[in-house]
Amino acid sequence: MRKSIRIILFVTIFVVLFLLLNQATIRAVVYNNRGLNYCNKGKYDRALQNLNKSIELDSSFAKTYNNRGFTYYNKGEYDRSIQDYNKSIKLDPAFAIAYNNRGLTYTNKGEYDLAIQDYDKAIELDPTLVAAYINRGLVCKNKGEYDRAIQDYNKAIELSPNLYVTYNNRGNAYRLKGEYDRAIQDYDKAIELSPENAEIYNNNRKLAEELQRKEKQ
What we know:
By secondary structure, this protein is mainly α. It contains 11 helices and no strands. It is elongated.
């Protein structure tokens, strides 16, 4: 009889602990999701409040550290952003998006070689991650490696042919190479996909100015 009571008590304690732990995990997910929504709305301080609470409740979610890292990135706090991406990758070494996002942070710090390493790893883990090709292409363009940039933009367009930013960026690479006809084609396509985007018109203006200078030479 006493043995049966001990067994019942043990099972009851186990079930209660299991439910409490799961409740904490569920709450952590809710705070994470709410934090991500605030981040997407540009309310970064509110986002951090929720993401911090999520980590307090359950510190084992790689996605929460990634989301907090992205929030710090948007606030311009790049070192704290990288710390969170490091933690996210440590928890999930196959998390391609965390590598891509850390690469984006390195890009904004001007640390291009580290950025490319992260984009390479993100693409290795997920060859369909369009953002990694676009971001790596931008770094290659900034380094003056226009052919490599164009290769990445070509792959991004192959994977997702309706993103204006890819055509705009490839147009920039062609313009800097002096391949003006191809640049015009890409800017035209970018405008077709995003007619109200001022950046594309600004790039078109730069191209027109370069063509005028070339004609005067």
